[in-house]
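Regression test case RT-17, inverse folding.

Input:
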């Protein structure tokens, strides 16, 4: 059996047993998804990259507690990412005044079009986050997981540590509070998925 043919439980078992290549394959498999998830909560590509790294480091630190839902490590990673983002947001509030005096870092890209596209993505993502900012934080987190990341109710329940019934009832409440959703950068078909979920 080749490394790439192994599923998440097999790779995770090998990684916990000391197989660094197996952990690297799990990172390759899920790293981009976690990175995009962090971007959609921060609207900052550089911060999202840092936070995605923290998610995998924290997952490894807590490796004895990891439980795979439906044969995938991804719900667990979303749960860790949600906690990492909460900590990040608390830090931003605590040091907000100091951070506001610093200029935003610009990625050292040589392609001007790529830099412009990344900055445009960040601007549009901030507009989206502003639009859902009136929702309670736990509802924002659930919206991101079920609609933007397309997790099942069971996977979202695992990620957030809540019952499946709570996921259903909260989504029903979110549907009632949100109207036409704004477009999301970098995710094909997200508008249709969001409209269907909230209709």
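Golden output:
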């Amino acid at each position: 059996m080749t490394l790439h043919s192994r599923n998440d439980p097999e790779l995770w078992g090998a990684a916990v047993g000391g197989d660094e290549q197996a952990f690297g394959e799990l990172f390759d498999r899920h790293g981009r998804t976690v990175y995009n998830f962090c971007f959609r909560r921060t609207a900052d590509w550089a911060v999202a990259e840092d936070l995605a790294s923290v998610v995998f480091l924290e997952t490894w630190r807590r490796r004895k507690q990891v439980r795979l839902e439906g044969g995938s490590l991804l719900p667990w990673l979303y749960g860790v990412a949600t906690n990492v983002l909460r900590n990040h947001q608390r830090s931003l509030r605590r040091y907000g005044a100091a951070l506001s005096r610093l200029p935003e870092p610009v990625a050292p890209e040589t392609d001007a079009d790529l830099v412009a596209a990344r900055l445009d993505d960040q601007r549009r993502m901030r507009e989206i986050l502003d639009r859902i900012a009136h929702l309670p934080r736990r509802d924002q987190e659930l919206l991101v997981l079920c609609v933007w990341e397309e997790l099942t109710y069971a996977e979202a329940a695992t990620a957030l540590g809540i019952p499946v019934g709570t996921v259903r009832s909260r989504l029903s409440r979110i549907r009632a509070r949100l109207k036409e959703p704004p477009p999301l950068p970098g995710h094909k078909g997200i508008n249709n998925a969001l409209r269907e979920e909230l209709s």
